[in-house]
């Protein structure tokens, strides 16, 4: 299905909702890397991506085809082996999510990754981190301050991508600088991403995750083990006995909230179900809409107002 890339796509009633489309688009480790270079560096040719990433031609073409199908990339030209792409407005709209992913890696995994670059806000000239604030009241928002519940098109079955033709990624964490190693482990596949969302919505015990998501027990156990090893979730019991432990989000896990929210808002902006939104967010009695501001000057951020600088 080819979606017009310059306006929201109307989804069919009862099928995958905006959450599923968001997860199906960004919750893949190779797609994260392709988008990183597209949004930040302007990479637009398959040859350039292959030069920058240790990716096979078949996997690259599969991801580019998927990004084209959902209207994130627009093919330019049709010469065999010479096709180029450009970001659609829908693709450009992913920059807040990618910025939050980058900031999370810098803050929580940068100590072990000195090759990651910092970000500078051109508006004030300072090295900064994006801060999530409420557009209505202008205050910084923490996860516990936002009430979230499924909307008219929201449910666990509809929020998990139902199918994918993409190959399983390698899962390697040693791909070099700027490759988001911990982020790929946490949101680099659809099951990890939907389980992280379940944790934000109150899932704490093994049966909670399995009942809500309807996934095999081995998948739940593997993801809980990974999240515990990375320090995103903390088990109350023996982490080797995942089915008998309770889990809670750590500070590191809660720090992923801006990435989760910006991905959700992107999905709900560009993929609209006839029944209504998939998720309804409330902050202090009013609808929550996110905006990212500079931690140094409090000015709202825009993609073109950010540059990379070597980490100090």
From TrEMBL:
InterPro entries noted in UniProt: HTH_HxlR, WH-like_DNA-bd_sf, WH_DNA-bd_sf
Keyword set, alphabetical order: DNA-binding, Transcription, Transcription regulation
PROSITE patterns: HTH_HXLR
Keyword Ribosomal protein part of the UniProt annotation: no
Pfam families recorded: HxlR
Region (Disordered): 147-175
Residue ranges of domain HTH hxlR-type in the record: 17-113, 173-275
GO molecular function: DNA binding
UniProt keyword annotation of DNA repair present: no
PANTHER family named in the record: TRANSCRIPTIONAL REGULATOR, MARR FAMILY, TRANSCRIPTIONAL REGULATORY PROTEIN
The name this protein goes by in its record: Transcriptional regulator, HxlR family
Species the sequence originates in: Actinokineospora terrae
């Amino acid at each position: 299905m080819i979606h017009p890339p310059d306006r929201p796509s109307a989804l069919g009633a009862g099928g995958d909702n905006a959450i599923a489309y968001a997860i199906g688009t960004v919750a893949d480790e190779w797609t994260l890397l392709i988008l990183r270079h597209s949004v930040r560096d302007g990479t637009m040719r398959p040859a350039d991506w292959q030069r920058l990433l240790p990716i096979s031609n078949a996997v690259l073409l599969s991801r580019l085809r998927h990004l084209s199908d959902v209207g994130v990339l627009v093919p330019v030209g049709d010469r065999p082996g010479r096709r180029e792409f450009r970001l659609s407005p829908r693709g450009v709209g992913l920059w807040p999510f990618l910025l939050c992913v980058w900031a999370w890696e810098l803050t929580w995994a940068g100590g072990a990754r000195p090759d990651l670059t910092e970000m500078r806000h051109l508006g004030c000239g300072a090295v900064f981190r994006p801060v999530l604030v409420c557009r209505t009241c202008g205050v910084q928002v923490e996860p516990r301050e936002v009430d979230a519940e499924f909307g008219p098109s929201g449910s666990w079955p509809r929020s998990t991508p139902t199918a994918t033709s993409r190959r399983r990624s390698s899962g390697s964490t040693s791909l070099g600088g700027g490759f988001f190693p911990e982020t790929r482990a946490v949101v680099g596949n659809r099951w990890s991403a939907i389980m992280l969302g379940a944790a934000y919505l109150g899932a704490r015990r093994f049966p909670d995750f399995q009942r809500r998501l309807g996934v095999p027990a081995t998948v739940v156990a593997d993801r809980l083990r990974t999240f515990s090893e990375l320090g995103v979730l903390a088990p109350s019991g023996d982490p080797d006995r995942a089915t008998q432990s309770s889990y809670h989000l750590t500070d590191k896990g809660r720090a992923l909230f801006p990435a989760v929210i910006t991905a959700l808002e992107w999905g709900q902006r560009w993929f609209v179900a006839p029944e209504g939104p998939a998720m309804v967010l409330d902050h202090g009695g009013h609808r929550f809409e996110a905006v990212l501001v500079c931690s140094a000057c409090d000015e709202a951020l825009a993609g073109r107002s950010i540059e990379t600088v070597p980490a100090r």
